[in-house]
Design goal:
303 residues; alpha/beta; D-Maltodextrin-Binding Protein, domain 2; 2 domains; 5-stranded mixed sheet; 12 strands; 37% helix
Length: 303
């Protein structure tokens, strides 16, 4: 009997997640699995909850969120999400939390925000997205309650990442505090505007990194026009394909193999990649079936 594998991602935003799920779905079908792929809801926090409740068999999340689900920290503090297991960590290079503000606001450091109370057109994810909670967590260390203060200071928040470049180009946005890459708004804005690049204090970076299972990274000077100093920030390690713990070891072993040998390419998109060397690093503990597959691959390479 052919197993039916249920895959689910979120609707609306989260297109990278949907891209990964379509890639995995095609690989599973090519390997002979019957699949059911759907999109539901808009809160990225829910994908790990779906696995824990048994609503789906395969989903996707941030690698940091998978680790949070396992440790009951960060966005999942106080929850007991049993059953979330790793299938494959995906490489998404440069998933850094950039924090930029137009220089004409007078802001030069995070501490200036609460002092100056500038009117900001702020690009930031919603609280329903894991990235949005991370940004709010480090801003809180500097006395900023985003959802209260930005409107109170006369500003506006823009939540859709794919729209942020246009918002900078037409002048609506003058600040960004969220995950981004040099190919998106932070790179485009720095080429045109004079910006302040805000650096996290080390103790703040360490506290938020521990709670939200993030990497602390340093952006070298002159990575962007006008960035003259090293900038300390946080980074999510990548994306993770996650599976329900209750799936059998044999099924998950075959799912892991399908991603490796039945996918059309290990390049999921222009900036998301699969590698058997990286795949075991999925944030949550690997499902035993996936672990066995990657152990076999490693053994072959070691010969």
């Amino acid at each position: 009997m052919t197993e039916k594998i249920r895959l689910r991602s979120i609707e609306g935003m989260g297109e990278n997640w949907a891209t990964i799920m379509r890639w995995a779905d095609a690989a599973f079908r090519a390997a002979g699995f019957e699949t059911e792929l759907e999109r539901k809801g808009r809160d990225g926090i829910d994908t790990c909850r779906w696995l824990a409740s048994g609503e789906t068999d395969v989903t996707v999340s941030l690698t940091s969120a998978a680790a949070m689900a396992d440790r009951s920290t960060g966005v999942f503090r106080g929850e007991n999400l049993r059953g979330v297991r790793g299938l494959a960590g995906m490489i998404h290079a440069g998933h850094y939390f950039h924090n930029i503000v137009k220089a004409d606001t007078g802001v030069r450091e995070f501490s200036d925000l609460a002092r100056l109370k500038p009117k900001l057109g702020l690009c930031i994810a919603t609280p329903g997205f894991i990235a949005g909670q991370i940004s709010r967590a480090y801003l809180k260390h500097y006395g900023v309650d985003v959802d209260r203060d930005i409107p109170a200071w006369g500003g506006t928040m823009y939540n859709v990442m794919r729209e942020s470049t246009a918002q900078w180009m037409d002048g609506r946005a003058n600040a960004l505090m969220r995950e981004n890459t040099r190919f998106q708004a932070v790179g485009q804005a720095s080429a045109i505007y004079d910006l302040a690049f805000l650096s996290l204090d080390r103790d703040v970076a360490e506290a938020v990194a521990q709670e939200y299972c993030l990497d602390i990274v340093e952006v070298p000077p002159r990575s962007f026009r006008g960035q003259e100093k090293m900038v300390t920030t946080l980074a999510n390690p990548g994306y993770s394909i996650l599976v329900r713990e209750g799936l059998s070891d044999d099924v998950v072993h075959r799912l892991a193999r399908a991603l490796d040998v039945s996918s059309a390419s290990h390049a999921v998109s222009e900036d998301i990649f699969y590698s058997t060397r990286h795949a075991p690093h999925a944030g949550a503990p690997l499902h035993p079936g996936a672990a066995a597959y990657y152990d076999n691959v490693s053994a072959r390479y070691a010969r």
